[in-house]
Structures are given as C-alpha cells and as structure tokens.
Amino acid sequence: MIAVRRPDFRDMHAAAPAKTADGAARFGRCPNSAGRFSPLSVALRIVRSCLAAALCCAGLPPSSASALTPNDFYYSTYQGYLNLIGAPAAWDVSTGSPSVIVAVLDSGVNAATPDLAGRVLPGISTTTGPVLDGIAISHGTQVASVVAMDINNGIGGAGIGRFTILPITVTNTSGSNTSYWLADGVRRAAAEGAKAIVISQSTLTYAPVNQAAAEVADQALVFVAAGNSNARRSEAALPNYEHLIFVSGTMGDERAVWTGGGSSWGPAVDLSAPAVSVLVADPTVLPNGYGLNSGTSFAAPIAAGAAALAWSINPDLSPTQVKQILFSTATDLGDPGWDEVFGHGRVNLAGVAAAAAATVPEPAAAISLVVLAAVGIGRAGLRRRGFVRSRFAPYTYR
Ligand SMILES: [Ca+2]
Ligand SMILES: [Ca+2]
User: Fold this and answer.
1) Could you tell me which residues are beta bridge partners of residue 141?
2) What pTM, to 2 d.p., does this model score?
3) How far does the centroid of ligand 2 lie from the alpha carbon of residue 331, in Å?
4) 150: CA distance to ligand 1 center in Å?
5) Rounded to the nearest whole angstrom, what is the distance from the C-alpha of residue 153 to the centroid of ligand 1?
6) Which ligand has the nearest atom to the CA of 332?
7) Minimum mean pLDDT among 41-55, 294-308, 377-391: which range?
8) 168 contacts 187 by C-beta, under 8 angstroms
9) How confident is the model at residue 368 (pLDDT cuts 50, 70, 90)?
C-alpha cells in the first residue's frame, strides 16, 4: 500500500446531501398493491406485482430506470473510475445482494465503518495470532470498503455492491503474512460460504494459495492483487497459476496504463481494474473517514466485486461461469486480446451485469402466478354472474 493522500473534504461536508426518502423504493423494494380498485385495475396490479416480485427475486430492479447517479457524498467528485467501468448501468440491474459473501483476506475489517454498517461478519484468523480488527492496521478495512461501501445512502462513497464482508486475518500484528496463512484463509472463506475472495497481499510464493483455490474451485473465485512493482514479472517470478485471478492496475480514466506509480504486469495477469486514487473508507486513519489510495490492493476488490455482482444477479452461476463472464466482457486495452499488461481487459461492470442478467431463467413462477390470478379473476366474474360456486363457501342458489 502506498501512502494515503488526504483530500481536503472539510468544506464539502457542509453541503452534504441528505439521504433521499425514496432510496429504498429505488433499490430492491418490491412493489405491492393496496386499496380498492376496479377488477381491471386489480388485474393489472396483480400482473405488475407478480412480474416485479419475480424480477426482485432474480436480483433485478422492479422497473427499467435510467442509469443511476448515486447520492453518495464523494461519488461525483472522486469516483469517476466507477463511471469508467460502467457501474451506473450495472446498478440499474442490481446494486448487490448482502446474501453474497466476499471474503477479505487481510488485516481485519473495522465493522464500525459507517458505509459497511451491518454487513461485516465476525472476523476469523488463520494465523497463529489474534483476529485483527482492521483498526490497528487498516489496510483490510480500506480493501473491504472498495468492494462493499453502501451505494446511494448519502454518505461517503460507493462500493461495487451491497455485499457482506467476511474478514479473515492473514497477517500478524506487524502486517506480515505467510503463504500458508493465505491458503488456509482461502479454504476457510469457502467453508464459510464466501463466493469471491480478495487477496490484496504480496507473499513469498503463491503455490500453496493456488492449491487451496483449486480445492475450492467449484465454490469460489480468488482474486489477487498483481503488485505495485511497476515492472514485468516473468513466468519464473510469478507463475500463471490457473486458479488465481491476478488483477493489475490501470488509471481511473481512459489513459489506461498506470503512470507515475505502476502496476506489476506479466504472464500471470488475468484482469485489470482502476488502481489510482480509489476512494476508500477508513474511520480510524483518514480525516472524515474517507480518502484516496492507490495500488493494485484496490484493483483486486473491484474485480472481486464484479464477480459478487454477477452472483447477486444469478446465485446459480458457477465460479467457472462467472470467470467466463468477467473475462469475456472485459474492456480490451493495449494489444488486441489478452495481453500481459491488462490481461483480458479492464473490468466492465456494466457488461458483467448484463451478461449475468442474461443467464437468469424466465420467471416461470411469476407467469404461473399471473395465470392463476387471471383464472381467479375470471372465476370471480363468473361467480358474480351465478355460473361458478365458491370452492370454500357454501353457495345458496337464488
Ligand atoms: Ca455510501
Ligand atoms: Ca488487450
């Protein structure tokens, strides 16, 4: 992690927008009907409610709204990189489900982070030391915030989606890890139900981590920060492990190649994502709890968040399918096709969401409900005309 730059947010707080009253309605609250209406309006409301319920169950919004511009305080000024990867269009499909668990293998996560409120599970440690709290060493908190800061809640910034974070401590109190602590963290994350696993840590050798990822390959995907060496890492230096998705860093704008600092690159790179001046939450270290940080530590959680969003939209996707979606939708940069700098390309959140939505089965249940509702309405009309007896109440012919 490089030094955190601290933008002066003090004056901006005075103009902080209040949380909108309709936030819940715009994100996932399923509509229902109420009150008394004519039979026709009731029928139309039932049809709409059934379809909306099916879409909500599928992780889709109840209506096709235009691309969302979140009201998070720092979003418009500091999170242009989310526009770059198509986040607003993706959020029109889903803003993420808390039922999807993202494991952050790091230095713990501060559960008191306001933008993560209620979505941080109790920590676990796979080291010989204690569970860390993301306060003493706040790197893990910052990584988690990039994945899962609340969206459109009027405070701070936006993450990739409203996922649940599982903090797994893989460092000692000095911030150092071992490959075996990381590998055990991968196994433990999968055992706890995590679908996406983020490793924003450099380690001596990734071989044990790759072995663990292979063991859980039918349960989860493992995303690893490629590193900040600003140099090529050869196959000898960093083998292209089949079960680890290495994420290199790009600029947060169309310049693509990270200049002035520098991501690692090489044969192991699978994907890339913005890594420069990424908004992070950290209530311990940063003024006002937010700041900008740079490094592939913050690119890997963006990629992991994209996977988690795909699973929010269709929980039945296999890890292999999600990986395919990530790779096939990525925005190709640099040399055509896969290359050592960008891998398959820069994460394209809009493309991921659209591809995941395309895999959602037809809402057969909703259609059945619509048919049943229509039949019920038809029977009610006939009953009023004396043609059908109620199934549940005795009927007296007159
Ligand atoms: Ca927020
Ligand atoms: Ca390319």
Assistant:
1) none
2) 0.78
3) 8
4) 4
5) 5
6) 2
7) 41-55
8) no
9) low
Q: Which ligand is nearest to the CA of 330?
A: 2
93 pLDDT band, cuts 50/70/90, is: very high
**Ligand 2: distance of its center to the CA of 359 in Å?**
26
Q: Which residues of 194-233 are buried (b: 16+ CB within 10 A; e: fewer)?
A: bbbbbbbbbbeebebbbebbeebbeebbbbbbbbbbeeeb
- Position with higher pLDDT, 351 vs 64: 351
| Mean pLDDT to the nearest integer, 71-88 | 97
Res 242 pLDDT > 50: yes
Angle made by CA atoms 158, 350, 29, in degrees to the nearest 5: 60
Q: Please report which ligand is nearest the Cα atom of 75.
A: 1
- Token pair listed for 301: 């959680």
30 Cβ contact partners less than 8 Å away, ≥ 6 residues apart:
49, 52, 53, 56, 62
Whole-number Å distance between alpha carbons of 205 and 238: 8
How many A from CA of 74 to the centre of ligand 1? 8
Structure tokens at 232: 């090529």
Q: CATH code for 75-358?
A: 3.40.50.200
Please tell me the number of the ligand nearest to residue 341's CA.
2
Closest ligand to Cα 279:
1
Q: Which of 85-99, 157-171, 208-222, 258-272 has the lowest mean pLDDT?
A: 258-272
Q: Which of 93, 68, 150, 64 is CA-nearest to residue 354?
A: 93
Instruction: Please determine, for residue 308, whether its predicted confidence score (pLDDT) is greater than 70.
Output: yes
Cβ 220 vs Cβ 194: under 8 Å = yes
- Cα 47 to Cα 35: distance, rounded to the nearest angstrom: 16
Amino acid at the residue 14: A
